[in-house]
Every structure is written in C-alpha cells, then in structure tokens.
Write a structure and sequence with these properties.
This protein is α/β, with parallel strands linked by helices. About 40% of the residues lie in helices and about 15% in strands. Helix 1 packs parallel to helix 7, helix 5 packs parallel to helix 6 and helix 8 crosses helix 10.
C-alpha cells in the first residue's frame, strides 16, 4: 500500500472547485471535447482545449466553432473573457489541474487506441501530483486501468495515490435540441473513492448540475455503461428493421404498427426502421464490445446478428426501390436519382459511417445516375469521387430527376415532385401519413 504523496485533500479540492481556481485541459476538441471545454469556460474555469489540428485551434481562438451544437457566439464569448484558449499540444499549457481526454477511438476490426495512448503519454509528461485525469473516449471495459493507467504511471506517480484517475463516458447526441451536456446525467467511475469524488465534483460544477452526476464504483462499470446504451439502441434498430422487412412481405403498414405499439405506456420504447445506424457511436460501440468478448472466448451472437441486419438495410432499400420502379415498367439503369440526405443522422453535417452513402454506392452500381441534396453537407466523397450537393430550393432543373429517395429525415420540399407524380421512396419516415400513389415507405 502506497502512502499518499503530496496529494490534495478532498476538502481543499472542493474549495478550489467552488472558487473556480482549478485550470481545466480538454484533449480533443471534436463533438464531445469542444462542448465540454466551452461549458467549463462558461462556468468560470480557466480552460485550455488541446487539438492536433492547427487550423481548428486557430479558428477557435478567433471565436469560430466547427461543431454545430456549439454556436460560434459561445466560443467567442469565452475567448474574449480570456477563459478559453485552443493549443496544439498540452506542452503549451502544462499547469492544468484537471485533464479530460476526449480523443477518437476508431474501430477497424479492432479498437484503435492509438489516439488514447498518444494523449495519455502526453499527459504523463506533464503529470503533476494532485492532478485529476478523466478519460471520456469510448472504449472497452478495462481501457482506463489496463491502457491509460500504466502510461500515466510510467514516470513514477501512482494513480489513486499521487494523482486521480476516472472514466466518464460522453453522452453527446449531435443535433439533439432537447438533451445536451447540461441536462443529461453524467456517469463517473473512479479508480478509487477519492478519484470518483473529485471527478464528480468538477463535472458537477462544470456542467452546472451537480445532482445529475451519477457515480459508479469503478471505471469498468462506467465504460460498460456507455457500451450498453449504444448496444441497446443498435439491437432495437435492427429489430424494427427486420420487422419492417417482414411487414412489407405481409403487406402490413409498419408505421401504423409502430404508432400503435407506442401507445403502450410501459415496456415499449419506440424505434423506427431506416438505412441503418452510422456515426461513431451506435455503429461502432457494440462492435467494440463484441471484439472484447471474443478476446475472452465469449459469444455475443445478438450483437453480431443485429449488426448484420443493420448493414443489410442499404441493399434492402435498393431492392425496394427497384421493386417500386418495376410497377412503372422501369429499371434503375440510366435513371436520374435524387437522394435526400447523406449524413449519418438528421441535423448534423457528419458523414462518418453513413449508411446513406452506402445506398448511393449501391444505386450507382446498378447503373443509376445519382445526385444528392443535403443542406449541411456541401461536398462528399462517393466511390472515390467528390460530389457536390444539389440545392433543391434554387435548382431550376428538378425535372431531370426520375426518382427521389429520402435517406435522412428532414424538412424536404417535395411539392414539385409530388405534383409531377415522381416516384419517391421514403427510407427515413419523413412522409409518414402521406399516402400518395407515387410514395413508397420502408
């Protein structure tokens, strides 16, 4: 058992939290890191954001945000108040008292922890006795203690004795206008009780909602919590996708089924079918959990089957479009198709792991001539080529399109297409309740 060495007592830490004399560093300024950094700065803490993207740092220091959920006005306000600065390396700001690590954890058949490891090594070089380090990057249970802790301890300081270590999963839902960083409960699991208490104290102050911080007894529990949340969503999306395909074969209106089931006030959570989940959470996190299970020779068949169902939806959508056009005596070859939406979900400009892009690829493989519209995505790469978005509002030649495919839910202006009887396939539930003969629903 190590005796405490130059660590800060909890009452002193709490006093510094209340006095806003702690300096916060947030490593990684993406969808999770930037909202966190700005929130701490708004709460009165001196905050530094660390990101390897020099252009991103320069823009932030001039008050320009790259994250839609964080308006530039918020960034500019904390920059002008001298409470926020973006830097390219934590070496430029070595006096942080609390460090949050919010870097990506890509999955390419196995979790890529290179960003987490690089961040941990950099933090280790600047680690001070009494510092609190909180990992937020999503990964498998054990990452905090098996990967991050040894890297932080490489220079002799001991976690839970000389410095404090915890995991707190990010719960950011980009584009969500109801639930954000300030009203979504924050799960925290520390290496020791002292680690957990400090992480809870600083997060409660930074988010302005101490009562929303939910402590658990270990980092692994907090890590598993995030994976459970997104696996739950992925499996239920797969369920409704599979039942939607079954309902189509049985000639049952599945949208009415969902609406009817949703009237039950208990035991049912409403999900709806679509092209399949994308992004870096629902499409990735369950696969991280499945990978970890296989590392221990454990079987997680439900996750694998759900992933297979969701990945198959892009091909199913194309098959349904072909079926729709066959009623007109058409094939897809040489047909001009307008696809509405290419991001992985509505309301965001993020196309990472977007299944809408997979639908476009498959449509082009059938010989269709595809263009897309998305007000948030001006250009996108499809099959190795950059494509520019169509502006439906001002395009004077919309009559060139033979087919419209809605891939992402939105407020699309479809009056001209409906008036002309253009075949429309709605894979996103945008036209629920519209029974025009030219519209097919997933």
């Amino acid at each position: 058992m190590h005796a405490p060495r130059n660590t800060e007592a909890m009452d002193e830490f709490t006093a510094r939290v209340e006095a806003r004399t702690l300096t916060i560093a947030v490593v990684g300024l993406g969808y999770a890191g930037l909202p966190l950094a700005v929130s701490f700065a708004e709460a009165g803490f001196a905050t530094v954001g660390v990101d390897v993207d020099l252009e991103r740092c320069a823009a932030l220091n001039h008050g320009f945000s790259h994250v839609p959920d964080v308006p530039s006005e918020r960034v500019a306000a904390v920059v002008v108040a001298n409470r926020f600065e973006a830097v390219a390396g934590i070496d430029d700001y070595p006096v942080a008292d609390v460090v949050f690590v919010c870097v990506p954890t890509p999955f390419t058949g196995a979790p890529d922890l290179s960003y987490v490891q690089a961040a941990a090594r950099t933090v280790a070089e600047n680690l001070q006795p009494g510092m609190l380090v909180v990992l937020q990057s999503t990964s498998y249970p054990g990452t905090t203690t098996e990967v991050v802790q040894p890297l932080l301890e490489q220079n002799g300081l001991i976690a839970g004795v000389d410095f404090w270590l915890a995991f707190s999963p990010e719960r950011v839902d980009p584009g969500n206008r109801t639930w954000d960083l300030h009203n979504t409960p924050k799960v925290v699991g520390g290496l020791t009780h002292g680690c957990t208490r400090r992480a809870c104290a600083i997060l409660g102050a930074g988010l302005g909602a101490p009562g929303l911080v939910y402590p658990v007894s270990s980092p692994a529990i907090a890590e598993m919590t995030k994976l459970l949340e997104n696996t739950y969503r992925m499996v239920n999306i797969a369920l409704v996708n599979e039942l939607a395909m079954l309902a189509h074969e049985m000639d049952i209106d599945f949208e009415q089924v969902i609406a009817a089931a949703a009237t039950k006030p208990f035991g049912f959570a409403s999900f709806r079918p679509g092209v399949g989940p994308g992004g870096e959470c629902i499409a990735v996190d369950p696969r991280i959990l499945a990978w970890k299970a296989r590392e221990g020779d454990l079987d997680v068949r439900l996750i694998d089957v759900a992933d297979e169902v969701n990945r198959g939806m892009a091909r199913h959508v194309v098959e349904r479009i072909i079926e729709m056009l066959s009623r007109h005596g058409w094939g897809l070859a040489d047909r001009r198709v307008l696809c509405l939406g290419v991001s992985y979900k509505a309301g965001v400009p993020d196309t990472r792991n977007s299944r809408a892009l997979r639908v476009i690829e498959l449509l082009e493989q059938t010989g269709a001539i595809v263009e897309y519209a998305d007000p948030l995505v001006s250009t996108v790469e499809v099959r190795g080529q950059e494509r520019k978005a169509v502006n439906v509002a001002i395009d004077a030649d919309l009559e060139r399109f033979d087919v419209v495919v809605i891939l992402v839910r939105g407020t699309w202006r479809l009056e001209k297409f409906l008036a002309r009887g253009v075949p429309i396939f709605d894979a996103a539930g945008t036209l629920v309740g519209v029974s025009a003969g030219s519209v097919d629903h997933l």
